[in-house]
From TrEMBL:
InterPro entries in UniProt: Calcineurin-like_PHP (IPR004843), Metallo-depent_PP-like (IPR029052), STPP_CPPED1 (IPR051918)
Coiled coil: none
UniProt superkingdom: Bacteria
Organism of this sequence: Tumebacillus lacus
Annotated Calcineurin-like phosphoesterase domain residues: 41-243
Protein name: Metallophosphoesterase
């Protein structure tokens, strides 16, 4: 009888312990529900460099992109921006693969793309290809009426710019963004149509803002900066350099503007002050890439501020690098 009583007592303690384990997650979920929620969350990818090919290594960008999309399912942002260099060479089948992965992994998530320099690269492979075909293909694949456009979403103005020429000016400007006078004029009219906080997306950075390793980021940088300075509050997100957004050089605040780079889902680069095996040196700075690393920016918009975060997709975790920018009344 004593042994039976002991067994019953032990069984009772096991039930109590199990009930505590069941309650703990419930308490945690309640705390999450009661926490402040952003009114808008924006995931910002860039530099996917997807290649629909059997070439060795072509599957790595695809795998990283798919993994990042799986990560987004957990985060549940309101929309996704892919800020240029969606493909390695801008071929139609590259975009088809991107659309296939988006439809499979995040079928209901709105996606807004901009063009990058690599999205013009098919002209290097095919003499029958040119800038016009690159732009037409990009617009057709992603159902865009124009290469540059804007959207209003929950109290935020989003403007999407894209470089418009590559091959005819490549020898002159390298990989820099070139915007037509029509796009620059449209940008000024569209930006200044409202005093609402605005996020501008352009693949290449504006000269004199974030990373300065490239001699020219955007040909019309001075014009665009002069226009942006007329607005009460602009957040300018650029890509192209692949520099990790964790680097202190990749977040700049000045003249009512915030400049932030987005890193790369495929291959972000870390800035180093001293040599590391396998690092490359450019303008006195060492750059090293971890083959497993995959990063992007993430914006949480609240009523009084914007939080700018860094997401590490390879570990499905947040970086400790975080910026909070107060929103100005408008």
């Amino acid at each position: 009888m004593r042994r039976l009583s002991s067994v019953r007592g032990l069984y009772a303690w096991i039930l109590i312990f199990a009930s505590l384990l069941l309650v703990a997650p419930f308490q945690s979920s309640v705390a999450t529900v009661n926490a402040e929620r952003p009114r808008l969350s924006i995931a910002v990818f860039s530099d996917l460099h997807i290649t629909a090919s059997e070439v060795i290594g072509a599957d790595i960008p695809t795998y990283k992109f798919k993994n990042a999309l799986v990560d987004l399912r957990r985060l549940r942002p309101d929309l996704l921006v892919i800020n240029g260099d969606l493909s390695m060479n801008g071929r139609p089948k590259d975009y088809d693969l991107i659309k296939e992965l988006l439809a499979k992994e995040v079928p209901t998530l709105p996606m807004y793309p901009t063009m990058g320099n690599h999205d013009y690269y098919h002209a290097w492979e095919s003499p029958e290809w040119n800038d016009d075909r690159s732009k037409e293909t990009f617009q057709s694949k992603f159902a865009l009426d124009k290469l540059y456009y804007d959207r209003y979403v929950r109290g935020l103005h989003l403007i999407f710019l894209s470089p418009e020429q590559y091959m005819p000016r490549q020898k002159e400007i390298g990989e820099a963004a070139w915007l037509s006078p029509e796009q620059v004029a449209w940008f000024e009219k569209t930006l200044l149509a409202t005093t609402m906080p605005t996020v501008v997306f352009l693949h290449q950075p504006l000269d004199g803002t974030v990373y300065q390793g490239f001699p020219i980021g955007t040909v019309q940088a001075k014009e665009l900066l002069a226009i942006a300075q007329k607005h009460p509050q602009v957040f300018w997100l650029s890509s192209h350099t692949h520099i990790s957004p964790e680097s202190p050089t990749e977040m700049v605040e000045r003249d009512n503007m915030v400049f932030a780079s987005t890193g790369s889902v495929w291959r972000p680069w870390d800035r180093l002050t001293s040599y590391f095996p396998g690092a490359r040196k450019r303008n006195g700075i060492y750059y090293h890439t971890d083959p497993l690393k995959s990063q992007s920016r993430y914006l949480n918009v609240y009523d009084d501020r914007v939080e700018i975060l860094v997401r590490n997709h390879h570990t499905h975790s947040w970086s400790t690098v975080k910026h909070s920018v107060p929103l100005k009344p408008h």
